[in-house]
Design brief:
The complex is a heterodimer of chains A (177) and B (464). Chain A is an alpha+beta fold. Chain A is built from 7 helices and 4 strands, in the order ββααββααααα. Chain A has a 4-stranded antiparallel β-sheet with strand order 1-2-4-3, covered by helices on one side. In chain B, a hairpin with a 5-residue loop joins strand 10 and strand 11. The chains are: A alpha+beta (177), B alpha+beta (464).
């Protein structure tokens, strides 16, 4: 009997995933180094190509024997992970292949990769997203709009005539698009 | 895993790797009441060689077929044919669930919801999908007659639960007036002539054909691991087909274009209407791509298969601003973003489109009962989840993959969710925002498996 599949919690459009996997014996020091290196890359370049990931975290615990991985994302975890596994399979393998049960061919064997994730998923008992309706794309866009608006308001303070206001406004609207 | 060759093509059902180009058809859905009779029906069709394969034949030659039958099965249909539970479990989850069960995920809500469908809602009525296609109405009718004669022979064992006559309109236009069927993926080993623009744009120019495994099971695809092949003898050389009967509201679409032309250009003169019509789709109604002729239509270009699909987006975006030449939200750019900057890849999400229009052309001012018309849409792919469903969910029903808003949906086939809109850059630099109304409604459909001829023979013999 296969064990029943753990179902992720979804609130609004945000979904969570928590998984716990055993680390291969003695692999922790090397794995920690890999994760530390990944941390050094600005803006977490590893996941920069994954537009749907809000947060992801890797925690080695239990005396260097296990990995806890948690992530919040828009839509389904596998939707964009698939294309990522085609584009950058090594990057994905690096942050998981110290786990017992990780497929031999890595995420290139996507069905096996999917099974690995689902087999190690654990149920989340409480999940709280602060903005369940906002996707990563929407949040990033909103931040740009906020910055443009701040700059616009600031610039408005120092102009006096109508034509200058119009020019500022036109530029602002253009920048928003 | 060998590449596609003539032996394989002779085993793959027709109309997958290349279109028949037959303009008339009848699509029927059957219910299997008794599997013995259903197997006999299938055996009879096979014995008479009425089910046509993808063997390369010259359309101009006298020996070329003038009509064809093709057969596919829903998951419930395979079960009704006697396929074991163990083998059924080797088929993908989305196929086992069927299109009606996937409605929420596909955005098929409200008027598009299965409860409003005319067919396809009940898996017990939706076992087999049979297409009859003919070069002429007579060829189609003769083949339909033959099919019905075969159905009669097995009596109550197989019942027709739905059927629809389809036929191309003048000049291969669909009901909204657009030329259809130009942009298809070029498939490696299909035996079909390669035209520029069908495959994946190369970094240094040129186009690479899409790997056969994206459309036929058992071959390498675009991802390093090929799509899982269902249990032998069923899976290999088979494919999956998504069928959607999409009803088109021509008066609503025309009214929308006129209103938007007025509010955008202060006049609904034909040139303004045509410009907007082109911006919605990314091609002028002639089929001429905006990317090749942004300012005015060029119908001559459409006839040139070296040209009519040979364009990209990234360089225009770079030079003129994103979406200034071909709108980011336009139908053809969404459904095949080519080299445009998007989240994820394009080459793992391509579909072969088949199917024809149904219903008479709309005539302005015609009296009488409202007639249903639209397109009997078919998408053929190796993975319904990764191809058709991805297109519908990520590219048609949401704009975020291309950094548009989530409410910016495909103007034709995108879900009409709250706030559904289309935004377009005008030539004078303004941006025009349009609230999208409903022009298209889903009447029914389903997910079907297209077995190879080998698999069909096994099904007919009860050995699948």
């Amino acid at each position: 009997m296969p064990k029943p599949r753990v179902i992720s919690k979804t609130i609004g459009q945000v979904t969570e995933l928590t998984l716990i996997a055993k680390l291969k014996r003695g692999s922790a020091p090397k794995f920690k180094k890999i994760l530390a290196q990944a941390q050094e890359v600005p803006n977490g370049a590893l996941f920069a190509k994954l537009p749907s990931i809000h947060f992801a975290r890797w925690v080695i615990f239990d005396n260097d024997t296990r990995l806890l991985f948690t992530s919040n994302f828009d839509g389904s975890f596998f939707t964009y992970i698939h294309d990522f596994s085609v584009e950058a399979p090594d990057a994905m393998d690096r942050v998981f292949n110290c786990c017992v049960g990780y497929p031999k061919k890595g995420c290139r064997d996507f069905d096996a990769f999917k099974r690995f994730i689902l087999d190690h998923q654990v149920p989340t008992n409480l999940f709280y997203p602060a903005y369940p309706e906002a996707s990563v794309v929407a949040v990033r866009k909103a931040l740009v709009v906020k910055k443009l608006t701040d700059n616009f308001v600031k610039a408005l303070e120092s102009v006096r005539n109508a034509s200058a206001v119009k020019k500022l406004t036109d530029n602002f609207v253009k920048a928003l698009e | 895993m060998a590449a596609l060759n003539e032996t394989a093509r002779a085993d793959i059902q027709g109309n997958i790797l290349r279109a028949y180009g037959f303009r008339y058809g009848r699509y029927s859905i059957l219910r299997i009441v008794d599997r013995v009779g259903a197997r006999r029906l299938l055996a009879n069709l096979l014995d008479q060689k009425l089910i046509v394969s993808a063997t390369t034949w010259d359309r101009q030659k006298a020996a070329a077929p003038t009509s064809a039958i093709n057969v596919s099965f829903s998951h419930a249909g395979l079960a009704a044919m006697g396929v074991s539970r163990k083998k059924l479990a080797t088929f993908p989850e989305e196929f086992a669930e069927g299109m009606a069960a996937r409605a929420e995920l596909l955005g098929d809500r409200g008027p598009d919801a299965p409860k409003n469908w005319k067919f396809g809602r009940d898996p017990a009525d939706t076992h087999v999908f049979v297409t009859v296609c003919g070069r002429t109405p007579e060829a189609r009718d003769a083949m339909v007659k033959q099919l019905y004669a075969e159905l009669k022979k097995v009596g109550p064992a197989v019942k027709v639960t739905h059927s629809l006559d389809v036929g191309a309109l003048e000049n291969h236009r669909e009901h909204f007036g657009y030329a259809d069927g130009i942009g298809q993926p070029t498939i490696e080993g299909s035996g079909e002539t390669e035209f520029p623009g069908g495959g994946t744009p190369g970094e240094k120019g040129g186009w690479a054909p899409i790997k056969a495994g994206e459309f036929v099971l058992g071959y390498p695809g675009e991802a390093p691991s090929p799509v899982k092949v269902p249990a032998a003898p069923l899976g290999r050389n088979g494919s999956f087909m998504v069928y959607r009967q999409l009803s088109q509201d021509v008066p609503a679409f025309r009214k929308f274009l006129q209103q938007q032309a007025k509010s955008t250009y202060d006049s609904d003169a034909p040139e303004n209407v045509e410009k907007l019509a082109a911006k919605l789709v990314g091609r002028w109604r002639s089929g001429c791509p905006m990317s090749l002729s942004p300012d005015k239509d060029n119908p001559q270009l459409v006839k040139d298969w070296g040209q009519n699909n040979n364009f990209r987006y990234a360089a225009d975006d770079e030079k003129h601003g994103k979406g200034a030449v071909c709108p980011v939200g336009s139908h053809i750019r969404r459904m095949n973003p080519r080299d445009a900057k998007i989240d994820g890849l394009t080459r793992t999400h391509r579909i072969v489109r088949r199917g024809l229009t149904y219903g008479p052309p709309f005539v302005e001012g015609a009296k009488g009962k409202a007639t249903d018309r639209g397109v009997a849409f078919m998408a053929i792919n190796a993975s319904i989840e990764r191809q058709f469903e991805f297109l519908q969910r990520e590219w048609a029903n949401n704009g975020e993959f291309a950094k548009l808003d989530a409410t910016e949906v495909d103007p034709l086939c995108g879900e009409r969710k709250a706030g559904a809109q289309f935004r377009v850059k005008l030539d004078d630099g303004r941006t025009k925002r349009m609230d999208l109304q409903r022009f298209v409604t889903l009447r029914g459909g389903g997910y079907f498996f297209i077995p190879s001829l080998t698999a069909l023979k096994a099904l007919a013999a009860g050995k699948a």
